[in-house]
Every structure is written in C-alpha cells, then in structure tokens.
Specification:
alpha/beta, six-stranded mixed beta sheet, 10 strands, Enoyl-CoA_hydra_C
C-alpha cells in the first residue's frame, strides 16, 4: 500500500506529508502509526535539523477517523494520540507545521504540539468535538497550554469556525500567512543553530506542556475513551457519517 505519511528531505529538514486525502487526513490508526515512526526516524537522523509537517489536499487533518472510531477500541486510540502528541513535543529537534487547508478537532492538537506553525488565508479551524457528543480531551494537553483561555472556552463550547488570523492571535498557531514564505526565516535561523542549542532551547519552551502530559495524560485518555464509548457520541458520530443532525440538534 502507498504510505499515508510521505517522507522527504530538503536542506536538513525532514518533510513529513500527511497523504490520506480520501478521509481528509484523519487520524486513523495507520496514519498515527506511520507519523509516529517518521518522527522517531527523524529524531535519530543526525542529518535532520528540523521536521516540517504538511499535507496534501484541502484539509490538513480532520481529527479522528470517525468511520474507524465507531468500530475500534477508544482507549487504544486515545493513548495512541497522546503518545503521538508527546513525541512531537519531546522531539529534540524543532517541529514546524505548514498548513494550507482546514483543520478540525484532533488536527488542532497536532498544531498545538508543534513548536512553530503557519497557516494560510484559506485555512479554517474548529473544535467540533462537543457537536458530536465528545470533548477535546487528549488534545487539550498541548492546546490549553498554548491557547488564550477565553478563546479556548469560546471555541471549545461553540464549535465555531475561525480563521488563521484568529488562530495566530489566540496562540493556537504561530503565524498567519502563506506558510512557505512565513516559515522561511524560521527555518533559516534553525539551520544556523547547533543541534545541542536547539534541543536545550526547545526543552525550555516545552517544559510546561510536558508537565501537563505528566499530570493529566492518563486521565484525559480515559475521559476520551469514555466519551467515545457513550451513547451520545455514537449518535453524534453516526449522524455525522449519515450527514444528518444528531437527535439533540433537531
């Protein structure tokens, strides 16, 4: 099978491209497994100075693969996502994201885990979990450490879409603008920095996020599993897949 995460190397940067457009780069078990493996490989490659996460298609990541979630073990998926996000945060090399499409739910966790992210004017963002009978549980580990609290409360509760300017202003992403151009000076600076300097500097900026993982990861994984297994979530996910309103929205 063709990989769901394509790997390329450009001038000391490992470019990891989410390439599962048939389900809008949803976080299927296979995609999560491939992305984790690619990150681990980049961490051990002495030629790699930084990792750049990007995508094909009009969606960077749609969050959980709901078609798979209806039939899978929710606890395994929640812990797998927590492991992936922590890997991004702990990686001893900067992880950047270049987004030129839409981001929903779990995809926002990927962005919050990255050290630097840029999104273009065509990008939109939404925490859609509450509309499905769920909550942004595991992704809160990086998101609530990065994002302005009032903004997080509004968008967690309403599920509203917001644009890249709002995402940058509230701390969810770093830069709003054409992502390739916006990230050029960041990557140029990284290439001039030593591996030791990068690793230790990143550790300073991610310490609070890692404390959140140490304190809350298991509790939030259990919450996610409980919600995914609930009757309301089954109705919400089924309604989404059937393109209808859930019973509580009628």
């Amino acid at each position: 099978m063709d990989p769901l995460v394509r790997v390329a190397h450009e001038d000391g940067t490992a470019v990891l491209t989410l390439d599962s457009p048939h389900n809008r780069n949803a976080l299927s078990t296979r995609l999560v497994t491939e992305l984790y493996a690619a990150l681990e490989a980049a961490a051990g490659d002495t030629q790699v100075r930084a990792v750049l996460l990007t995508h094909t298609g009009g969606t960077f990541c749609a969050g959980a693969d709901l078609g798979e979630a209806v039939h899978s073990a929710p606890a395994d998926a929640a812990r797998g996502l927590a492991r992936l996000l922590r890997t991004i945060v702990e990686l001893p090399k900067p992880v950047l994201a270049a987004v030129s499409g839409h981001v929903r739910a779990g995809g926002l966790g990927l962005l919050a885990a990255c050290d630097v992210s840029a999104a273009g004017p065509q990008s939109t963002f939404a925490f859609t979990e509450a509309r499905l009978g769920l909550a942004p549980a595991v992704i809160s580990l990086p998101v609530l450490t990065r994002m302005e609290p009032r903004a997080a409360a509004r968008y967690y509760l309403s599920g509203e879409r917001f644009d890249a300017e709002t995402a940058a202003r509230t701390g969810l992403i770093t830069l709003a603008g054409e992502p390739g151009r916006a990230l050029e000076p960041v990557l140029a600076g990284i290439r001039r920095s030593s591996p030791q300097g990068l690793a230790e500097s990143k550790a300073l900026t991610t310490a609070a996020v890692l404390r959140a993982f140490d304190r809350d990861a298991e509790r939030l994984a259990e919450l996610s599993a409980r919600l995914f297994g609930s009757a309301q979530a089954r109705e919400g996910m089924t309604a989404f897949l059937e393109r209808r309103d859930p019973e509580w929205a009628r």
